[in-house]
Amino acid sequence: MKKLVLIAMLGALVMTGCDRESVEIRGEPTLPLEKGDFTKPFAVPPLLKDEDPHPGRVEYSLSPRESSATFFEGKTTKTLGYDAPYLGPTITVKTGSRVKINVRNRLDETTTVHWHGLHVNGDDDGGPHQPIVPGATWSPSFYVRQPASTAWYHPHAEGSTAEQVYRGLAGLFYIDDGTAKNLNLPRDYGKDDFPLVVQDRIFSRNGRLVYKESTVFSRNGIFGDTILVNGVDEPLLKVGRGLVRLRLVNGSNARIYRFFLSDKSSFSQIASDGGFLDAPVVLKSLELSPGERAEIVVDFSEYEPGKSVFLLDEQFRIAKFVVSKKRARRKILPAKLAAIERLNEYDAQKTRKFVLESAGGGESSRDLTINGKSFDHSRIDDVVRAGALEIWEISNPSNYALHLNEHPMHIHGVSFQILSRDGRLPPRNERGWKDTVLLHEDETVRIIIKFADDKGTFMFHCHILEHEEAGMMSQYQLK
Ligand code: C2O
Ligand code: CU
Ligand code: CU
After folding, report:
1. What average pLDDT does range 322-345 have in this prediction?
2. Whether pLDDT at 22 is above 90
């Protein structure tokens, strides 16, 4: 009911608040299964070229810029991209290498590039404290010393993160430490190892990306009715008859997905945000909130050639897979993946508590808080000693001022482990390395964090980007 009212309000707002073209918002379909033909080829972002010939060192260039893309035939959409019509190239680095990235801002507004999931110094993190003004170049450089994982990058400028991401700025950042090869996992980029950056968007009838007009959603989060995978809606992916690795990235501003396969078959999760799990976890469905990543392996080897299966969410069809005749080289998922060092809560030096709330009962658009405070660029909320082991206890009490009171809380610069959800052990697929954890309504989650010896200022925030911009972000300083 609440949702319907909001959609109606949004509709009204859109009708009055924009240019002459009429915007039609279809709203959330109740029975998505009947819609769409899924014939567009699945897109795989190109791999970014390393410009440094030295082994052990990589240098990359990246330029956010205005662009345009064709999402729907005959319609041109104004977008943003990193040297691309939409999204950006995939950066790949090896553990142990020195990385330099030159980010040249070709937009006519300030941006930043944050390496979500990377353990780097505050100055290289690309948060709100490293603005790149139009025309300027920012060149962070860091040493990669963390395990294999699927990380990503996106803007983080104060006040414009949500919209810049929405218009297309995001890309993948893969870290490889040799584990995938040692375990003989699917690892052939775009062949049996595919990224899926899943994003929901609102398009007007003539193909314009609708964002600002929907201000009624700006604090609750924007929810689109078109699902893009790597920038393509209703994609079709041909897969070999064998193991296929799907790296799911929730790159949406606000939408939480629960993924499953249309024939209800199970799949195995092999990695979470910060790296491989210690063993594959067999699942029938997987919840993924904004900012989170999960690598899953689907076994297509017993499917008849030509058979099709959909990746679904409870509300949407996301992608269609068609099994080809070709039998993939036989691969078996190993029983053990990576050894994960368990952080022991009795070794923790400190426990900090965080409560997620909204202050003004919803009147203001900046009223979302952590421990009663909205984000302030010039205020350090927590000082943490470099190298410390800490427990952070985050609670999310009921909140009637919010349309959706669930918060994927993300910490910059570290990976952590989840100790408990409401006093219980987390599900098995949440027992590996994480950097973003979803807080359901009325839930308390305890996590344990081993801080590195990095220094500087880092963000802790809700990854529903509109919540972050409404103030649900704090900063900690490592010293
Ligand atoms: Cu992916 Cu602070 O963000
Ligand atoms: Cu981050
Ligand atoms: Cu939130």
Report:
1. 91
2. no
Least confident range from 16-25, 113-122, 417-426, 436-445: namely 16-25
3-class secondary structure for the chain?
CHHHHHHHHHHHHHHHHCCCCCCCCCCCCCCHHHCCCCCEECCCCCECCCCCCCCCEEEEEECEEEEEEEEECCEEEEEEEECCCCECCEEEEECCCEEEEEEECCCCCCECCEEECCCCCHHHCCCCCCCECCCCEECCEEECCCCCEEEEEECCCCCCHHHHHHHCCCEEEEEECCHHHHCCCCCCECCCEEEEEEEEECECCCCCECCHHHHHHCCCCCCCCEEEECCEECEEEEEEECEEEEEEEECCCCCCEEEEECCCCCEEEEEECCEEEEEEEEECEEEECCCCEEEEEEECCCCCCCCEEEEECCCCEEEEEEEEEEECCCCCCCCCCCCCCCCCHHHCCEEEEEEEEECCCCCCCCCEEECCECCCCCCCCEEECCCCEEEEEEEECCCCCCCCCCEEEEECCCCEEEEEECCECCCHHHCCCECEEEECCCEEEEEEEECCCCCEEEEEEECCHHHHHCCCEEEEEEC
Query: By alpha-carbon position, which residue is closest to atom 1 of ligand 1?
Result: 116
pLDDT greater than 60 at residue 255:
yes
Q: Which ligand is nearest to the CA of 407?
A: 3
Instruction: Using the atom order of ligand 1, give the atom closest to the CA of residue 152.
Output: 1
Per-residue pLDDT averaged across 471-476, rounded?
97
